[in-house]
Records
---
Amino acid sequence: MEKETRVIQSFDKIRFKDFGNLILTQGDHESLTIEADAELMAELISEVQDDTLVLGVDDDWFNRIGKVFSSILSHKGHKVNYYLTFVNLHKINISGQCHLSCPSLETDHFKLNISGMGNLDFDHLNCDALEVNISGRGEFNAAGRADNQHVRISGSSDYDAADLVSKSVRVAISGQGNAKVWAEDDLDITISGLGQVNYRGRPKLRQVISGMGKSRRIDDDTSQSNSKDDKNDQRDQDREESVGSYST
């Protein structure tokens, strides 16, 4: 493995199309260091297009997925590592397979689109509005604050934001997705298929569930989600708020 530091222009969005690790750090200037096998380094691109930093391999080479996968997952077990420092970040698009870690992110609004496979960890996220779209297979973990949270899950994915406090949360699941959220004021749930939403807090609840989907409240002082208190509380909320639908 060798390391290469590259000069990059300013950006506030990222497009990641590779099989590897993306390590993000918020700082006062942008920087990028790539760690990869020597024979692969020349194939990796890092260019800014319309305020979007594109990381990975070019589209033609990316389509030859077998070659990429065998190159990056070599006999040594090496993956490409991208060490990226950003100033502002509002959007990330991920295709391929990515393990993303970000110790801290503060921004006004943040959007995340995942297609393919992804494992994403945000240790401390602080934003006004968060939008997450996951298709394919992904795992999302976040803690901190996001006043408004909108989540769409299709396919088989796990979304864990039980430690991400929000005022208003909207969750739409199709397929076999699972979500954990923390809503203080309002919670809108739409589930079709086998999805499940577990939630903290005592928000005003609106839900439309079809198929075998379900929702349940999981508070710190509640050891059993199907306890009598939970069921009574759920019935109270259902009486207070009529069930409706919304477009996702």
Note: The chain has two domains: 1-101, 102-218.
---
Amino acid sequence: MKVETTAWGTLEIEEEQLLSLPKSLPGFDDITNFALLPAEQEPFYYLQSLDNADLCFLLQNPFYFFPDYQFNLPDDEAEELEITDQTGVEVYCITTVRSSIKESTANLLAPLVVNPAKRVGKQVVLHQSGYQTRQPIWISEPDKPEEGGV
């Protein structure tokens, strides 16, 4: 299917790239149809709205920058997404890119959880998890040892 977008012009969307968010994203109540598209570089993806050509989010695989990121998906959320086995679940975080990579952030508090078999997803708020909506993705470089003799 061909889709007109503001950012990318005309895109050819494959069926396996379609994603339904029946409850939408907070603040975007009438926008439920999306395409999940790989970006030029891993671990990034684009979540392009099919209902609004102007709306596109940058997502990331949170485990790339945060290998210890983990949470338990509540049973009611898993049921809503028709998830019976959590091993096949995909998780993405909305990413905010600033002028400097050191200021770019990921929303770890409310990941987008996707059932790829059903092509359905939901932004799940992880109450009382300790995660932030603006977690910096830049991990500082280790200190370099001083050069010199013994």
Note: The chain has one domain: 2-136.
---
Amino acid sequence: PLAANLLAKVGQAASDNIKSSYGRNADLTGLWNSTMDTLKCCGFNNFTDFRNSPYYNSSTSMYPPQCCGNTNNPCNQTVAESTMTAGCFPKIKSLVDGNTVVIIAVALGIAALELCAMVVSMTLYCRIKSTMA
């Protein structure tokens, strides 16, 4: 239940982020475009995440081209619905699930490195303190 609640909050934050900033904030727009191009997905859940976003409102109710399979045709609701491009969340979740061992190994490696750095710094501190006394 805790993980499901966390994922729901992350999903809501991502959708809200798209609605408020996609098309207005160049960095965020570029990040979403890159993610959608790489994973071949559209929005966090689907194309409806872009409704009422600055991009949608300024482009006369058009969706990003990734939502329509990057066709040369304008990406309106009809084309987006017929293309049925999946949202990015399931693809990101699948990517994380497939690389869980690597993610855990990297996290443990970083933790071990931090622990070693703390031991070295405490050893140096004690030696410096003993030479000054």
Note: The first helix runs from residue 2 to 21.
